[in-house]
Design a protein that fits this description.
Elements: E1 23-27, H1 39-48, E2 52-59, E3 65-67, H2 74-77, H3 88-91, H4 99-102, H5 114-122, E4 128-133, H6 135-141, H7 143-154, E5 161-165, H8 168-178, E6 181-185, H9 191-200, E7 204-208, E8 225-229, H10 234-242, E9 245-250, H11 253-260
Parallel strand pairs: 1-2, 1-9, 2-4, 4-5, 5-6, 6-7, 7-8, 8-9
Antiparallel strand pairs: 2-3
Helix pairs in contact: 6-7, 7-8
Amino acid sequence: MNEPPADHSATPEGDREPLEPPQLIAHRGYAARFPENTLAALAAAVEAGARWLEFDVQLTRDRVPVLLHDPTLARTAGRPESILKLDAASAAGIGVGEPNRFGGAFDGERLPLLTQAVAALGGWPGVRAFVEIKRHSLAAFGLETTVARVLEDLAPELERSVVISFNAEAVAAARRIAGCEIGWVLRAWDEPSRRVADALEPQYLFVNHLRLPPAPAALWPGPWRWACYEVTDPELARRLARRGVALIETMAVAEMVAALGAPVRAEVPGG
């Protein structure tokens, strides 16, 4: 982005409100009301006012990136197969309408290719995406191959994308290969993780809000912006913002936009 890093040394939580509402990230799209990680969920999130999207990426057997959180299709498609063992041609026709949650309401939703999500992103001015590379694909196909394939498909909108992962080496590789912005997702709030963050210096640090130390403990200062998930309570979002959290990740993006006010437009590099 074309702005100097902000001072993100966190201040203890107090009675004052943050200067502006936290920015909202649509977690797997508008996943509270639409099947997660689908084009419909992403479009609905943008329609609701989201200016940040988040979605997960796995690789098929022939190394094609698709939008999927789990390594199997059981939860989203009601099928037992592993996406890691299916070719893209077969996987692309699979319905991922989450029948256990929505019945047949979204029978037309198919497993999206990353290229399809990137094309959609190109039609949404002012919207950016956090693209999470999942550990299952990294383990199955190797770090370099997986990261390179994701970057290849992200190329048309790479400046509007941030590559994130629980795997610090994966996001470091993405930055080394493509010079893109990165985010690291913490598994633990501890000193070893803090040392990794200090060495990595990502633009974004993600953490489950339940892992944070109790207020008024300060968040780690650094060149990053803090993002917390999974938050559906507006008051919790406000408390996190007072502690220095800049971005709130939520599956209930429309409800949170209504409660917190219109989100700040995402900064687009070069825009």
